[in-house]
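Review form for a predicted model. The reviewer records the input and the model, then writes brief findings.
Reviewer: anonymous (R2)
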Amino acid sequence: MNFVEELQWRGMIHDMMPGTEEQLAKEMTTAYVGFDPTADSLHIGHLVGVMILKHLQNAGHRPVVLIGGATGMIGDPSGKSQERNLLDEQTLSRYQAGIKKQFEKLIDFDSDAPNAAIMVNNYDWMKDVTFLDFSREVGKLITVNYMMAKDSVKKRFSGEGDGMSFTEFTYQLLQAYDFTVLYEKYGCKLQLGGSDQWGNITTGTELIRRKLGGEAYGLTCPLIKKADGTKFGKTESGNIWLDPRYTSPYKFYQFWLNVSDEDAKSYIKIFTLLGKEEIEAIIAEHDQAPHERKLQKTLARELTCMIHSREDYQKAVEASSILFGSATAEALRSLDEETLLQVFEGVPQFRVPRTAIESGIAFVELCTATAPVFQSKGETRKLIQGGGISLNKTRVAAPEQEVTAGDLIAGKYLLVQKGKKNYFLLIAE
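Model under review:
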């Protein structure tokens, strides 16, 4: 597999330094991507960097994952107008452990292959460097004029945000120093990153040239935006995380299932490992019958299986089918409480006394007098007679049908359904 060609057809190249392709063709090349540990989990905004490293490894090259334990204490000004909060050492180390666990699922660190990945933390070499050492070794080699010419710096100096602290101004030198250390220690000749990193990456190649007389390269990918121009990966409730503690597999699956057709056509190339012909066939099939959402379903399947597991994917599909009327009572009962609440987020909820259900109560009584699900007993009886009411995905046979504690899902919930689309969640307390 040719790494550059692979990224090109996937729409994953923004800028590339001259000589990069020749370097990759010449030998197994070590390349790195930096990730600042801002939480103990990656989110889908990091996935582009992860996928680039995956393609790099599949093409026979060696990936280096750099965790910015030191630079994460400062914050990269690229693409931002505000300073980042500084993190303490203990928090950073917890964050790194969480991130490493996620990377190990996606990239090979453990095999005997010559291109097995390495994970490093720049805090390990930064912590012993004194300010005087850094000024003498690095500061004297790069001019302030050179640093000021970078877009990320110019924007902040021209009134975007609250200016720029000296700490943030030196960030590009710190990142350049990382590249230099990796070049010396691991023969790392290529840095990869988002297009907002171009300035930092070229400073690194310049420092390697001036300090070591070496030749190094840079390649960036476009920043992912949605078709409507808004930021990718953010929802009203915040980031979509890769860790199931923060974003459940169901919510993760739903995110990809609900992207627009236009976005799905680019995301399936960027975020999956499916080949070119297969993707083209899926897009063609989707265009024939867009209402079937073949693209979104494939995208959601590939991503959920890759980040979580096939079992999590199947559970998410079942949970999704519950909302659209095709699921069984058994599928409903198999949901854990968290997923159940997520599936029925936004449907009308009623709190009912547990004692009423434990002693047994007629369905018609429960849904009118105990909880105002329906307006009257007469309306409820009519709906039941017409076969239009279900309790926990099973049709209610008679208005006087008894509801007991045995009907509670997860020992706490009852799901009432009117017709195909109207749901009501009763919570026994």
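Findings: The CA atoms of residues 32 and 64 lie 4 Å apart.
Further findings: The first strand starts at residue 15 and ends at 16.
Recommendation: see findings above.
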